[in-house]
């Protein structure tokens, strides 16, 4: 009878076992494939299927498509930097003409395609399609967003509306690019 369970390997573990820095799992096809190959002895010892090679998990493609700066340190998670410095800047926010045109998005799409050429079962994945509107607002504005609903409710509402609309539009665009339905 038993209970079903899921099992996975974190990106930091794959990097460690693969003998590479974590940022290589975001940008280096050879390092990605090598690391996923090196995890196979551990999966055999544990009696589980080895993971399929893919780009490292990444929570920020939506804000990258909007122009947010994201730094990939050698051995740490990617770190986004707020792009809204003052509440007045919310009034000038516009959606990009092409959500996939940002340099980081283009680079990840290219790397995803290179991995798929070598490993066709690899998922169509450049990162998680979106965060919720409040998380996105904090990522775009930093912790200053947390007081904005009290200081300027109209602008807070405007930013949340922008975050929601742009997230939906980004998710639609990336799903269409890969020819896949939007995942709930």
From TrEMBL:
<protein>
    <recommendedName>
        <fullName>Uroporphyrinogen decarboxylase (URO-D) domain-containing protein</fullName>
    </recommendedName>
</protein>
<feature type="domain" description="Uroporphyrinogen decarboxylase (URO-D)">
    <location>
        <begin position="65"/>
        <end position="176"/>
    </location>
</feature>
<dbReference type="GO" id="GO:0006779">
    <property type="term" value="P:porphyrin-containing compound biosynthetic process"/>
</dbReference>
<dbReference type="InterPro" id="IPR000257">
    <property type="entry name" value="Uroporphyrinogen_deCOase"/>
</dbReference>
<dbReference type="InterPro" id="IPR038071">
    <property type="entry name" value="UROD/MetE-like_sf"/>
</dbReference>
<dbReference type="Pfam" id="PF01208">
    <property type="entry name" value="URO-D"/>
</dbReference>
<dbReference type="GO" id="GO:0004853">
    <property type="term" value="F:uroporphyrinogen decarboxylase activity"/>
</dbReference>
């Amino acid at each position: 009878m038993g209970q079903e369970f899921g099992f996975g390997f974190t990106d930091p573990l794959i990097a460690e076992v693969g003998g590479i820095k974590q940022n290589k799992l975001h940008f280096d096809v050879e390092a990605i494939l090598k690391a996923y190959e090196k995890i196979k002895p551990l999966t055999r010892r544990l009696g589980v299927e080895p993971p399929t090679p893919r780009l490292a998990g990444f929570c920020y493609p939506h804000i990258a498509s909007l122009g947010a700066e994201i730094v990939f340190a050698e051995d740490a998670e990617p770190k986004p930097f707020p792009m809204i410095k003052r509440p007045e800047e919310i009034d000038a926010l516009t959606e990009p003409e092409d959500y996939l045109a940002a340099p980081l998005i283009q680079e990840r799409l290219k790397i995803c395609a290179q991995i798929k050429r070598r490993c066709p079962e690899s998922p169509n994945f450049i990162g998680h399609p979106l965060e919720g509107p409040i998380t996105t607002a904090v990522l775009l504005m930093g912790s200053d967003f947390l007081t904005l609903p009290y200081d300027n409710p109209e602008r807070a509402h405007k930013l949340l509306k922008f975050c929601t609309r742009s997230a939906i539009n980004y998710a639609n665009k990336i799903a269409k690019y890969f020819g896949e339905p939007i995942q709930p």
